[in-house]
Amino acid sequence: MKCLENNDKQCVMKLIEELVRNQCHDGRLIGKEVADGVRMVTHELWLVSDNELRCKLLRTLRELGVTKKWARGALKINRKELDKKWRTRCNIEWGIRIKRRDIIKRVEGLLRERFGWDEVKMCEELMRFIGIDTEMLRKYGIEPCDWVHAGFDDIYLMGIILSDSHIEVVNNYVEIQLGTTNTIGAVFFLSLLREPSLSISWFNGKTRLVEVRYLIVLGKVDKWGWLNREELIKRIRALRPEDVPRLIAGAIDGDGSISYDFDESRSFINIVSCKACEKRVFLDALQEALEKLGIEGKIYESSDRAILEVYGKEAVKLLRLIIPYLRHPLKRLRAKLILMLRDGIIDKNTFAELYSQTMYEDCNNDPKRCRAIEVLARAAPQTHTHGSEQNKN
Fold first, then answer.
1. Which tens digits make up the pLDDT trace of 161-171?
2. Lowest mean pLDDT among 12-21, 286-295, 326-335, 367-376
3. CA 328, 329, 334: angle at the middle one, nearest 5?
4. What distances in angstroms separate CA 377 from CA 17, 128, 303, one per listed residue?
5. Cβ distance 372 to 181 under 8 Å?
6. Spatial contact of 45 and 13, defined as CB atoms under 8 Å apart
7. DSSP designation for 99
8. How far apart are CA 366 and CA 352, in angstroms?
9. What are phi and psi of 139, to 5 degrees?
10. DSSP code string of 34-92
11. How far apart are CA 274 and CA 59, in angstroms?
12. Torsions phi, psi for 215 (to 5 deg)
């Protein structure tokens, strides 16, 4: 550190301010290594400072919203020393900071009370934004927003985790991260993870594509320690047949797809994984789980990815089992339409008309893609009251 080497304490102070403003002190958002570096710099400045500069440092940290717990850890002082000695000496009022989840609860409460916001209205705004005609669907007896009331449990969450998430253990707590640039995923993940922290970053600076990333602390390792590859596979293999549909629904909602081939008049269900990564082994475990239901799934590999595929009559059989547990709005809607066609409730022309609303185009022409920030502002504005913005090169 040139600032420290040159004994330029004001330079170090400005550096700490900049790092904290950019959330570099928060290991949950930026990574443990970077956050530890910020703590080290802060501690080094504390050691070489006189009382006046120490007071200035404490005031700066407080004004930037740093918690007392973080300050104690970085400065290597205990609670009594900070509260009785330094807060008194520096005349600093450092109360308990309102937590982000409390802010979002308050704002959401106001939205419900004064503006009539609820999860169904959130869904309807999402559907309107992506071009789904909810009134037309309801004329055919299809409720497009019942997914907001679909419950889920650890088995469903297991499916999400093994297909479309990043897991870390930080300070003996298990954290799960879900990121998306997708319009539907932004709202779907929000409904799935209650009280998450939110970060917004450039996914691709050239195309101006923005990613929304959710982070939630699940709990201590002793409860969630099974969230690693080996334990997950053991749990999947130990599932009872009646539990498997919830697992498969979670995996499809995470990184799977439900589609219909009009040329062949066949349904397809795919779950995708990269070919040369640790998640590839999960496809084998899911294939084994499907066998407990008497359903055949085949795995195909290309140069860079692997796909577990169920199609035709087997796909229809699987859809009947998983549809109560699907929570992704469009995947659930597609499943309903395919089964209604199969059961003769709607004809092929009606099916084609309704199904076409669920089809994706490219980012430039389709609001279903690449509009994560826009849809959150419209459908779930309380999300913009917390979280952080980051630049990602």
1. 776 555 665 55
2. 367-376
3. 100
4. 29, 14, 39
5. yes
6. yes
7. P
8. 18
9. -60, -30
10. HHHHHHHHHHHHHHH--HHHHHHHHHHHHHTT--HHHHHHHHT--HHIIIIIIHHHHT-
11. 48
12. -130, 135
C-alpha closest to that of 340 among 356, 326, 320, 321: 320
Rounded CA separation 355/171 (Å) = 47
Q: How far is CA 50 from CA 53, 54, 174, in A?
A: 6, 6, 39
Q: In the chain, what are the domains? A: 2-90 (no CATH), 103-385 (3.10.28.10)
Bridge partners of 308, per DSSP, are 271, 299
pLDDT at 392: 38
Q: Left if phi > 0, otherwise alpha if psi is -120 to 50, otherwise beta: which for 377?
A: alpha
Report the helix count and the strand count for the chain, using DSSP H and E. Answer: 21, 9
The rounded distance, in Å, linking the Cα atoms of 235 and 160 is 14
Give strand ranges (E) for 94-237.
Answer: 166-170, 173-180, 197-204, 209-220
Contacts of 238 (CB under 8 A, 6+ apart): none
Single-letter amino acid code for the residue at 278: E
Supply 357's token pair.
């609303």
Which tokens is 262 given?
A: 């009009």
The phi and psi torsions of 167 (rounded to 5 degrees) equal: -115, 135
CA distances from 393 to 156, 285, 297, 342 (A): 34, 36, 39, 48
Q: Mind listing the pLDDT tens digit for each residue in 166-215?
A: 566 555 665 666 555 555 655 656 666 555 555 555 554 444 455 555 55
Pairing, β 197-204 against β 388-390: parallel
Nearest Cα to 137, choosing from 347, 382, 354?
Answer: 354
